[in-house]
Each structure stands twice: as structure tokens, then as C-alpha cells.
């Protein structure tokens, strides 16, 4: 049997027989992408929702020509969320650095597998080196290290699996022999992934005990200690405290020093979800906000958020890397054991894994630590200006004083009753999108509707803030 030539054309032939046509396809796609991204300011950050009914998505019986595929790229671009527009300030979704896009492309092209050293001889070493450097940047000791995972939820999951195995002495993960119900303690504003993780660990969502927060949205340390002692007295077994460095809604950083001291006092694991705020390690001016992170037993961090790396890219770091290996490793019999560079697939939730480290490393290399410092300081500078503008308006209030480049706020104009505040804010969000082209998000926070901006786009400028507030003021006037 021989393969149809038309099918072989769908691969890059290793004998140089289709280079020209491949090059043409790649150039065409590249042009389409660039046509869109270099003009992204002129496309709405939030395209109107179009319902695509089948057969649009139907898998064809016969192969399609490359030109037919590039036709649908137009459609894909036109109907996608457009975070490249600087007025997209609604979520933690950054525009990717050029080299993270290229790194993803390169990683797909060589298609190595981070499962094992023999399947990715260069890239496995790279992942070990990069995660080690991040461990050091976070102030963890020499014995620390980590791995990359495809998203923060997985990073939090692996940290808490190891925490459970270590603290509850369940090295093979069997919880059924435990006399007491295991509990995770986290702030009421901790990320929703902690609840999923409780389900995955088999401890149940009800065993994520939520600690109250203070006015400034930080975990209340007195309540934290109360919860710990209360759980112990009631015959439960807390094993980990999850502190957050940069909550998703308001970018708040818990008091990491106090929390780690308390965790030590009760011999609990302290996991720091620095998935968003961890980027501050690159800013000399602001890194002090992470004080105490160096005491963590584990840290999760997402370069896919504030390091502008294309999704997905996350990491989990452990204070004692060898201990993590001891408590988590499942050897793969079909892989040659690697004593120096343990096959990453044996010590990671994921098996086969894309070389997400490549786009991270290329981004870091092309921008440098100082470049990242500039980006982060710039975002924080603009957040100050934004917050100042907010405070000039008595009808607006912040949920808590912003610490990062996230501002959660809402209008509470006195001429409407507080029963109508939610509606007012919802309408303002729609008004800003329709009349000014700004996309800001509308989180529910403390049972109310709030507005939220994440000032992440490097092309977002002070002028954007001025124009945005002009529109907010105009809306406020029309509503009177
Ligand atoms: C985004 C986020 C997560 C989850 O990360 P994913 O990559 O979306 O799985 C967890 N914690 C915090 C604080 C986050 O902001």
C-alpha cells in the first residue's frame, strides 16, 4: 500500500520535497496573524457572540486544501476574544511576548516530549534549570526545585497532593486509613481551583475551610488560628494552609510572614498560590510585597499571566525537591531511569508534556530580568494613576486598596438606592464596551456585582485611563 501524495503533503517532508508549498502556507498564515495583531486596536476587544451551527464545525470526509484552511483563519480571528487590544483590561490574560509565540511554534515543530530525558535531552535539562532559578528568585533554599505544568490548577493540585502525602504520612496517597478527616485551610478569597482539588483528593469541598478576611481582603490571622485550633479540637486533621499572593478578584496578597509562622507553629504545610503575584520577584521596587514567600513549603506561579507568556505555562516549586520526588515519583517501566535528571513524567501530574519551558526561556532571554522589571513597574505605575482617578470620584469605591495591577471597584451613586447598585454597575460595563470600546470584567464579590480592571497590556497608556474615566463620568451623568 502506498500513501496518497495528497496526504503526505500534509506533513513537512523530511526529503525537502515540499518545502516551497509549506513555506507558502506558513507565510500566508503568518500574514493573516500579523494583519490582525498589528491592527488589533481597531478590532473590538470583545466581539459580538455569533452562534456557529453545524455543519460549520463538521469534520470533513475528504482532505481540504491549505487555502481552504486559511480561509477559516479569518473567521477564527474575527470571532475570538481580542486581548491584543489595549482596551481589553478585563482579565489576567496578557498579550504574549513575540518569543513566547515563537517558542510555542518551535516546541510544536520539534515536538519533543518532556516525559523523559531521552525524549527531550535539551529541554528536560532546560526545565530543571529554569525552575531551579525561579526557586532561587523566590528565596527558597538550595534543596528546592520544581517542574512546569500546564496551568495553575495543576500546580496547586500537585503541591497539595505532596502536602497531604507528607503531612498525613500517606506516601502512596491512600487516605482511607486516616482516623481523622483531612482539611485544607484557605482564605475565603482563595482561587476556586482549591475546591476542585479537594474533590480530586477525595477530601470533599466541605473540607476546604474558609478563613475570614479583614477590610483589606487579607486572610484574618486571628480567624486563621481560631480555625486551626477549632478543627484540631473537633477531631479533624488540617494539613495545609493555602495563602494567596495576588487574589484573582482584587490582587490582594495575604500576610505571608504571619501565615507561614502560624503554619510552622501547628506543623502544617504552607502552600503559597503566587500564580498571579509571583511576577513581583522581578521588581526591586515591589518584591518586598512578597515578604515571607521564602518560608513556603511549595509555591505555584503562572508565567502565562504576568510574565506575558503564551498559555499555558505554570510552575510548582518545592522547598525540598527530593522530598517531593520521594513522595510523588511513580517510575515508568518503559523509560530508562535517569538519576541526575529524573524523567519529568515520573514526578509530574502530567505524563506527556509539551515543552512549555521553551517559550518561557525564550521570553526571559529576549526581555531579560530588567525588561520584566520595567514591564511590571509600568503596570503598577498606571495602576496608581487609575486608583487616584477613582478616589477623585465620590460615587466610586474600591473593594480594597489595590496592591497589584488589579483594581476591583464599583459605583455606588447616592442618588440610587443600594438595591440598584448591581444594575448600575452592570449597565456601566455594557456602556463602556459599546461607547468606548473598553472591556472590563464584572465579577461577583461578596455577593455583589463589581467592576474589575487588570492593567496588564504594555500598550495601555495613561491616555486610556483619562478617556475611560471621561466615559464613566458621562455614564454617571446620564444616569442621574
Ligand atoms: C489564575 C489563577 C489560578 C488558576 O490558574 P489556571 O492556570 O487558570 O489553572 C489559581 N490561583 C490564582 C490566584 C489565579 O489567579
UniProtKB/TrEMBL annotation:
Write the record's keywords in alphabetical order, separated by commas.
Answer: Aminotransferase, Decarboxylase, Lyase, Pyridoxal phosphate, Transferase
> GO MF annotations for this entry?
transaminase activity
Record carries keyword Nucleotide-binding: no
Matching entries from InterPro entries are given as: PyrdxlP-dep_de-COase, PyrdxlP-dep_Trfase, PyrdxlP-dep_Trfase_major, PyrdxlP-dep_Trfase_small
Superkingdom is Bacteria
Q: Which cofactor does it need?
A: pyridoxal 5'-phosphate
Pfam families reported in the protein's UniProt record: Pyridoxal_deC
Q: What's this protein's family per the entry?
A: Belongs to the group II decarboxylase family.
Q: What is this protein called?
A: Aminotransferase class I/II-fold pyridoxal phosphate-dependent enzyme
Amino acid at each position: 500500500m502506498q500513501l496518497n501524495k495528497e496526504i503526505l503533503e500534509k506533513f513537512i517532508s523530511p526529503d525537502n520535497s515540499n518545502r516551497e508549498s509549506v513555506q507558502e502556507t506558513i507565510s500566508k498564515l503568518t500574514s493573516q496573524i500579523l494583519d490582525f495583531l498589528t491592527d488589533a486596536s481597531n478590532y473590538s476587544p470583545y466581539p459580538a457572540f455569533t452562534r456557529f451551527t453545524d455543519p460549520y464545525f463538521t469534520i470533513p470526509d475528504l482532505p481540504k486544501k491549505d487555502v481552504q484552511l486559511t480561509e477559516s483563519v479569518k473567521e477564527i480571528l474575527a470571532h475570538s476574544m481580542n486581548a491584543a487590544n489595549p482596551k481589553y483590561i478585563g482579565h489576567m490574560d496578557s498579550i504574549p511576548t513575540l518569543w513566547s509565540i515563537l517558542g510555542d511554534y518551535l516546541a510544536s515543530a520539534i515536538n519533543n516530549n518532556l516525559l523523559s530525558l531521552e525524549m527531550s535531552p535539551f529541554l528536560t535539562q532546560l526545565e530543571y534549570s529554569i525552575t531551579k532559578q525561579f526557586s532561587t528568585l523566590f528565596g527558597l533554599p538550595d534543596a528546592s526545585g520544581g517542574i512546569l505544568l500546564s496551568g495553575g490548577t495543576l500546580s496547586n493540585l500537585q503541591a497539595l497532593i505532596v502536602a497531604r502525602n507528607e503531612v498525613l504520612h500517606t506516601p502512596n496517597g491512600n487516605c482511607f486509613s486516616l482516623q481523622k478527616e483531612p482539611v485544607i485551610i484557605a482564605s475565603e478569597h482563595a482561587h476556586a481551583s482549591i475546591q476542585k482539588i479537594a474533590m480530586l483528593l477525595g477530601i470533599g469541598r466541605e473540607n476546604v475551610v474558609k478563613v475570614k478576611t479583614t477590610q483589606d481582603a487579607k486572610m484574618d490571622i486571628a480567624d486563621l488560628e481560631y480555625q486551626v485550633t477549632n478543627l484540631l479540637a473537633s477531631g479533624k486533621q488540617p494539613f495545609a494552609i493555602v495563602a494567596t499572593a495576588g487574589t484573582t478578584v482584587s490582587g490582594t496578597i495575604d500576610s505571608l510572614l504571619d501565615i507561614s509562622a502560624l503554619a510552622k507553629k501547628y506543623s502544617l504545610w504552607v502552600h503559597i498560590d503566587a500564580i498571579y503575584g509571583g511576577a513581583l520577584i522581578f521588581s526591586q521596587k515591589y518584591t518586598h510585597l512578597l515578604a515571607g514567600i521564602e518560608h513556603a513549603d511549595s509555591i505555584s506561579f503562572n508565567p502565562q499571566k504576568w510574565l506575558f507568556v503564551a498559555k499555558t505555562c505554570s510552575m510548582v516549586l518545592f522547598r525540598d525537591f527530593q522530598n517531593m520526588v520521594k513522595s510523588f515519583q511513580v517510575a515508568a517501566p518503559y523509560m530508562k531511569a535517569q538519576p541526575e535528571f529524573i524523567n519529568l513524567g515520573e514526578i509530574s501530574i502530567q505524563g506527556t508534556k509539551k515543552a512549555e519551558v521553551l517559550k518561557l526561556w525564550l521570553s526571559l532571554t529576549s526581555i531579560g530580568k530588567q525588561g520584566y522589571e520595567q514591564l511590571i513597574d509600568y503596570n503598577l505605575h498606571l495602576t496608581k494613576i487609575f486608583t487616584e482617578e477613582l478616589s477623585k470620584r465620590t460615587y466610586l469605591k474600591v473593594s480594597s486598596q489595590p496592591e497589584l495591577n488589579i483594581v476591583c471597584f464599583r459605583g455606588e451613586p447616592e442618588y440610587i438606592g443600594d438595591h440598584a447598585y448591581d444594575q448600575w454597575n452592570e449597565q456601566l460595563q455594557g456602556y463602556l464596551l459599546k461607547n468606548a470600546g473598553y472591556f472590563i470584567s464584572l465579577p461577583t464579590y461578596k455577593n455583589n456585582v463589581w467592576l474589575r480592571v487588570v492593567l496588564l497590556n504594555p500598550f495601555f497608556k495613561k491616555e486610556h485611563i483619562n478617556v475611560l474615566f471621561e466615559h464613566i463620568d458621562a455614564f454617571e451623568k446620564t444616569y442621574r
